[in-house]
Write a structure and sequence with these properties.
This protein has 115 residues and is mostly helical. It has helices at 2-33, 42-49, 53-80, 83-113. The chain has one domain: Fumarate reductase/succinate dehydrogenase, transmembrane subunit (3 helical TM bundles of succinate and fumarate reductases). Helix 1 (2-33) runs antiparallel to helix 3 and helix 3 (53-80) packs antiparallel against helix 4.
Length: 115
Amino acid sequence: MGESMNKKPHYDWQFQRLSALFLVFSLPILLTIFSPFKENSYVQIVAKLKQPWVPIFLSLVMVMLVFHTLLGVKAIVRDYLQEKWANYVLITMQIVTVSLMAISLLSLTNIVMEP
């Protein structure tokens, strides 16, 4: 049992680094799509979101961002809280974070599907 416990943090670390790499390479793409230097109206942004690859890419970025955040906070909580409290905090955080991600994805779907 102790051996499997030692491997898990290593995998969490690897997955967090991979998600960080994905997010770093996603940032320039997101800035290209939704440039803060251009005046984008709501209609222009919705038009961009209607392209098939943009909502798929945004959804993937949201999922990876939540995944990356959960792994990072999990490492911090496990290091600084007692196991009993760490489990409560992690379960609550996972419920809240996944709920917010689901709301975001539903909102994105709603914007894309509107006529």
